[in-house]
């Protein structure tokens, strides 16, 4: 009886889960039944699609009206709760910035070289005999390029045996399929991202010399918190977390896009030159660490390092969102709680330089330098030339 009750509950919850995060059905979200959507007889041939313009216009206008109403409700009802709720981080709430303040930051910090940005790029070149992984990191200011680093890892495929060339080829293909299915096999995509994230963190913590450091992405990427299958990656990353995030403190991370629906919703309701400090990263760290598969042996030592860092970082790392222009979307940012407002203003002063995009231009500059100094064909062409030389 207990099993059938569970099955019945799961069956009841399945349609809601398939609809949306809010539990709405397909018909609630779109205004039509899914059966009608998938009925080809209801679809219009190409020559009649132009007739849908009036409907499209009506849908856009209605969506804009709903967006304005939602934005008003969020500003009136939700914004005051950000600062008043229990456990809110330091300086939580919505804040306005004067344009003159951004100009001052541009003059005295950005354009004088007191802010350094770090970005990386990773390229994979796969051939039959081996796979080449290239990771590159660039450190830049508006005064010029202050450092670029690159490294290549050569993953050699295990030799396969067979009576004929076809047998050996099929064995190699089967081997690579097995490697794709096993996350721990060789250099996985997650590990490759982890290697780049650790390199970016190392440059931010130990190579950068400016008072303010700007990074791309999340300050605590899951690849480093989980080790991407390697406890050594955790052991090497935790000291860097401490040096940059807890000791240096003057940093700001801005991802290129975010899946955090809470931050995105608050950001969509911000007016230009507003920022909000919303939450700390305690629940994020707790969720990743408690759900991670850390295993035994050396992983237990790495886990203890993570738990110690988590305790020391509690309440000290925060997430927020800012908007600099009516023409651009909002941007998520991460910072130390003691300097979160300063971090937001530094990022906004840089982002306002590209009004249409609203994303820090110095990060784009670092990324451009990285791709220019270490282009993808930097490994493709030499590898192809060597293989051709030896008849491959």
Summarize the SSE layout with pairings.
Blueprint: H1 2-19, H2 26-30, H3 34-37, H4 53-84, E1 93-96, H5 99-110, E2 115-126, E3 130-141, E4 144-156, H6 165-181, H7 189-207, E5 212-216, H8 222-226, H9 231-248, E6 251-254, H10 261-268, E7 274-280, H11 282-291, H12 298-313, E8 317-323, E9 331-336, H13 340-351, H14 361-373, H15 377-389
Parallel strand pairs: 2-5, 5-6
Antiparallel strand pairs: 1-7, 2-3, 3-4, 6-9, 7-8, 8-9
Biased composition (Low complexity): 14-24
Region (Disordered): 1-30
Biased composition (Acidic residues): 1-10
Describe this structure in words.
The protein is of the alpha+beta class and 392 residues long. It folds into two domains: 30-84, no CATH class; 94-122 and 136-149 and 189-383, no CATH class. The protein is 52% helix and 18% strand. It is built from 15 helices and nine strands. It has helices at 2-19, 26-30, 34-37, 53-84, 99-110, 165-181, 189-207, 222-226, 231-248, 261-268, 282-291, 298-313, 340-351, 361-373, 377-389; strands spanning 93-96, 115-126, 130-141, 144-156, 212-216, 251-254, 274-280, 317-323, 331-336. The protein has a nine-stranded mixed β-sheet, with helices on both faces. β8 and β9 form a beta hairpin. α9 (231-248) packs parallel to α12 and α11 (282-291) packs antiparallel against α12. The protein is globular and about 65 Å long. The model is unreliable at 1-22 (pLDDT under 50).
What's the gist of this structure?
By secondary structure, the protein is α+β, with helices and mostly antiparallel strands.
Number of domain modules: 2
Which series of helices and strands comes N to C? HHHHEHEEEHHEHHEHEHHEEHHH
* Proportion of residues in β-strands: 15-25%
Summed over residues and divided by their number, the pLDDT gives a mean of 80
Q: Which spans have pLDDT < 50 for at least 5 consecutive residues? A: 1-22
> Which descriptor suits the 3D outline?
globular
Number of strands: 9
Structural class given helices, strands, pairing? alpha+beta
Biased composition (Low complexity): 14-24
Biased composition (Acidic residues): 1-10
Region (Disordered): 1-30
């Amino acid at each position: 009886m207990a099993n059938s009750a569970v099955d019945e509950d799961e069956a009841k919850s399945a349609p809601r889960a398939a609809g949306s995060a809010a539990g709405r059905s397909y018909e609630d979200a779109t205004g039509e039944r899914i059966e009608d959507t998938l009925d080809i007889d209801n679809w219009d041939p190409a020559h009649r699609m132009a007739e849908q313009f009036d409907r499209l216009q009506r849908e856009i206008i209605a969506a804009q009206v709903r967006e304005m109403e939602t934005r008003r409700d969020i500003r009136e009802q939700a914004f005051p709760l950000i600062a008043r709720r229990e456990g809110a981080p330091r300086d939580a709430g919505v804040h306005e910035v004067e344009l003159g303040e951004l100009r001052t930051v541009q003059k005295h910090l950005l354009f004088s070289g007191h802010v350094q940005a770090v970005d990386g790029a990773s390229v994979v070149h796969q051939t039959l005999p081996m796979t080449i992984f290239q990771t590159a990191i660039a450190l830049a200011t508006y005064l010029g390029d202050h450092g670029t680093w690159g490294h290549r890892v050569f993953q050699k495929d295990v030799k396969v045996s067979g009576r004929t060339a076809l047998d050996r080829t099929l064995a190699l293909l089967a081997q690579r399929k097995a490697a794709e299915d096993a996350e721990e096999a060789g250099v996985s995509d997650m590990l490759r991202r982890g290697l780049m994230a650790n390199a970016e963190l190392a440059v931010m913590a130990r190579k950068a010399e400016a008072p303010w450091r700007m990074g791309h992405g999340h300050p605590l990427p899951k690849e480093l918190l989980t080790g991407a299958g390697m406890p050594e990656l955790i052991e090497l990353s935790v000291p860097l977390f401490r040096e940059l995030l807890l000791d240096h403190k003057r940093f700001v991370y801005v991802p290129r896009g975010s899946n955090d629906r809470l931050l995105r919703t608050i950001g969509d309701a911000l007016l230009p030159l507003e920022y909000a400090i919303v939450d700390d990263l305690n629940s994020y760290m707790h969720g990743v660490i408690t759900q991670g598969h850390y295993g035994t042996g050396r992983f237990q030592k790495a886990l203890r390092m993570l738990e110690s860092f988590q305790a020391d970082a509690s309440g000290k790392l925060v997430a927020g969102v800012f908007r600099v222009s009516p023409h651009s979307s909002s941007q998520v940012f991460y910072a130390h709680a003691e300097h979160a407002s300063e971090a937001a203003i530094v990022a906004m002063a840089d982002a306002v330089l590209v009004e249409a995009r609203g994303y820090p231009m110095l990060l784009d500059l670092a990324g451009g330098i990285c791709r220019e100094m270490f282009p993808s064909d930097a490994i493709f062409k030499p590898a192809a030339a060597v293989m051709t030389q030896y008849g491959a």
